[in-house]
Amino acid sequence: MVSKTEETQLSNLETQVDNGGGGAWEYLSLVRKLKVRRSDRVLKHGLSILNDPKKRSSLGPDEWTLYEQVAVAAMDCQSLDVAKDCIKVLQKKFPESKRVGRLEGMLLEAKGAWTEAEKAYSSLLEDNPLDQVIHKRRVAMAKAQGNVSVAIEWLNKYLEIFMADHDSWRELAEIYVSLQMYKQAAFCYEELILSQPMVPLYHLAYADVLYTLGGLENLQNAKKYYASTIDLTGGKNTRALFGICLCSSAIGQIAKGRNKDDKESPELQSLAATALEREYKQKASDKLSLLTAALKGLKVSS
Amino acid sequence: MAEDLVLDTAIRDWVLIPLSVVMVLIGILRHFVSKLMRSSQVPDAKIVKEGQLIVRARNLRSGANFIPPRSFRARRFYFSNEENGLLHVPKGQAPNPQAQMFSDPNMAMDMMKKNLSMIIPQTLTFAWVNFFFSGFVAAKIPFPLTQRFRSMLQNGIDLSTVDVSYVSSRSWYFLNLFGLRGLFSLILGEDNATDDTQRMMQMSGFGFDPTKSLGAEKDSLDIVQHDWALPKFEQRAEAVLRKVLS
Q: Keywords assigned by UniProt (chain B) (predicted)?
């Protein structure tokens, strides 16, 4: 997670570097530390350092780190020649290195030579079966080829060992949603909520999945998670507000014939609707009529 | 003793200071030697998995109130059922760390390397100090001490009449041996190989039994009372929205 101060620091450095104010190396170090994706800039500024022998040698041993960073950025930007040159330099300096071997595998992958890349990765995994990065690359490769089911298989195998890696759970959840396997996705989102209970986005995504699954119990749960999203975001999440309205109307339709004594917090929906109307009035007043029509259709408008 | 002993300044220049300098240099040398000899340890898949398992179980315990009761019960069953739960360790299957050590020569080798890099220089310096400086009074501390400190400060001098505030050279060696840790962590960084306390921790941690922590985690998971927090959130959301709208 990137904190706010780091973000402002990053953007300050970015404008400074872009306008030729120097500090390229500091910028690249910060990018590496925060693990943000700025491949085009990294490529541009990194190359300008690497092509200048004086600047390059002043880095000392960090030179090789920069080579690696630029190589990955170049692959991301599809300038494979640059990546190839960087990897060649690294190969010369560190023969037999697994880290360079990983880069070579990535280069093969970037070229689209799937079978060769697969071979490279599996030989690397034989040496060190616990290399998380390579496991993840394999998943990404399967996904890039369109073999989503294979990707799921790899991810499940990976999560069997590294089950506390929440980023992978998130990836798995998104893949399941894309395949409309909502029950599995719900499980993954529960796992995410467990690992980071205060992140509203996971509550929201879980609520979405529950709402999509349907059924009275799921709808009620979905409403609860939309409510928690509202609480965690301080009522600023429009999607959660809409979610409340949709859930209440769906619950109302299902529970029409049944007894209504367990109807909880009838006020929440009307409050959500009013909040929505206010939001639209302030930010997109020309679309207000659409909103009121939609809310009327849901019969939650007060 | 009525009158003070006079210590020759040559003792300061040729015993006290050289001893400290040599101790520092040897400490630095030891750090780099052990760094050279350290072999990169490949972690065992099972141990990694158990570590991650404990993290996940702990997450479940702390975040239990944020998922629906049914999901919580399913997970708890998955972790701690008696047949094939992940946290359930069958009795008698726990690997004995002692046996593990003997079966894995690398482990014993590692231990030996660590011990060698510690013991050899220590024996050598101790022999050196004993040979050249035995029986010296090397320094005087500027405050009086009780008789209890005699064995600590006057190791190697068998005179009960000398005031306790005088320090013998061998004791000075021991004081340096244990007292230089702070200096080493300053010049070599926090995780230096000379840190004896860390080594002690590792030694005692050697008998660390992952199955025990799995069992503990299972027990604490079993007694968790699930109290779903989400129904409360509806009221809280209402309050938030009211505040926003007002």
A: Membrane, Transmembrane, Transmembrane helix
